[in-house]
Write a structure and sequence with these properties.
five-stranded mixed sheet, four-stranded antiparallel sheet, binds benzoic acid
Length: about 210
């Protein structure tokens, strides 16, 4: 199934290293990240899972619940988790879904047969508190993801959701932001007391509101 931005993230129930998970129930009113791994006991995935475990405080600060997926069994995941802790210096601190029958992988279109018939690609989905898909990125199996970029996009999405601003190219936390074009100047006056610089009527730049 193809999943597009704005679609409701498909719900499922699956086994994981943290027990059985009903995805929507597990996310509750939080934001979510669902990310897939080609296979257990593979080198790039090992580094990625360690990197995400190290970012737990940052995800918690943003009220984001992270769920990983690899198509192998919980038993394999548990054995691999020991290797992750040994080599990456951090224990898994989020659920890793087991998907041996590829039910979730197929639901989220994580298997791209022309890349591999059996391995999932490196998919990432960010899901909003309304369960709609806010971001989807697909990386090849041979390239580890940039989780700083993922955090940057989550910050941008949360600014849009909470403050009606968009973020320009290469924006970093603390940089100026852009007032969404759907907001009138009249409404913007109320919402952005620090004012803005209008480079064009549609390009209004204002300091990051939550700073
Ligand atoms: C890895 O995680 O290291 C990996 C998995 C599949 C293909 C290439 C690399």
């Amino acid at each position: 199934m193809t999943i597009r931005l704005g679609d409701t993230a498909p719900d499922f129930t699956a086994d994981s290293t943290a027990g059985t998970i009903n995805f929507h129930e597990y996310l509750g009113n939080s934001w979510g990240v669902l990310f897939s791994h080609p296979k257990d006991y593979t080198p790039v995935c090992t580094t990625e899972l360690g990197a995400v475990a190290k970012l737990k405080t940052e995800f918690d600060k943003r009220d984001v619940k992270v769920v990983g997926l690899s198509v192998d069994s919980v038993e394999d995941h548990n054995g691999w988790a020991a290797d992750i802790e040994e080599t990456q210096g951090v224990a898994l601190n989020f659920p890793l879904l087991a998907d041996p029958d590829k039910k979730v992988a197929e639901l989220y279109d994580m298997i791209h047969p022309n890349a591999s018939e059996t391995f999932t690609v490196r998919s990432v989905f960010v899901i909003g508190p309304d369960k709609s898909v806010k971001l989807s990125i697909t990386y090849p199996a041979s390239t580890g993801r940039n989780f700083d970029e993922l955090m940057r996009v989550i910050d941008s999405l949360q600014l849009t959701a909470n403050h009606s601003v968009a973020t320009p190219q290469n924006w970093k936390d603390g940089d100026d932001v852009i007032i969404v074009p759907t907001m009138s100047d009249e409404d913007a006056k109320e919402k952005f007391p620090k004012g803005w610089k209008a480079l064009k009527p549609y390009l209004r730049v204002t300091p990051q509101p939550n700073r």
